Amino acid sequence: MRGNEFLDKMELIDPAYIEAAENKQNKRKNTWAKYGALAACLCVVAAGAFAIYKEPSVQNPPIPAPDLPGTSVTHPINTEMINREDRPEILPTHPVIGPGDEGYISPIPTPGPVPENPQYSFIYDGAFETDGAFDTGELSDVRNMISGFGELTQKPDMAVEEGGACFSDALEEAMEHYGDTVRYRVFIDLYSDGVQISSGSEQAIEEAQRLCDMDYIVALETFTQTEDHGEYVTTNATYYFTLHAEYEQLKNFAAAENLGYYIMLYDEGTGISSSSYGVVFSGSAAVDK
Amino acid sequence: MKALDDNGIVELYLQRDETAIKHTAEKYGSRLRAVSYNIVSDSLTAEECENDTYMEAWKRIPPHEPRTYLYAFLARITRNISLNRCREQSALKRSAFVGELSAELEQCIPAPDDIECRITDEELRLAINGFLGKLDEEKRNIFIRRYWYMDSVSDISKRFAMSESKVKTTLFRCRNRLRDYLEKEGYDL
Question: How many separate helices (H) and strands (E) can be counted in chain B?
Answer without folding.
Answer: 9, 0
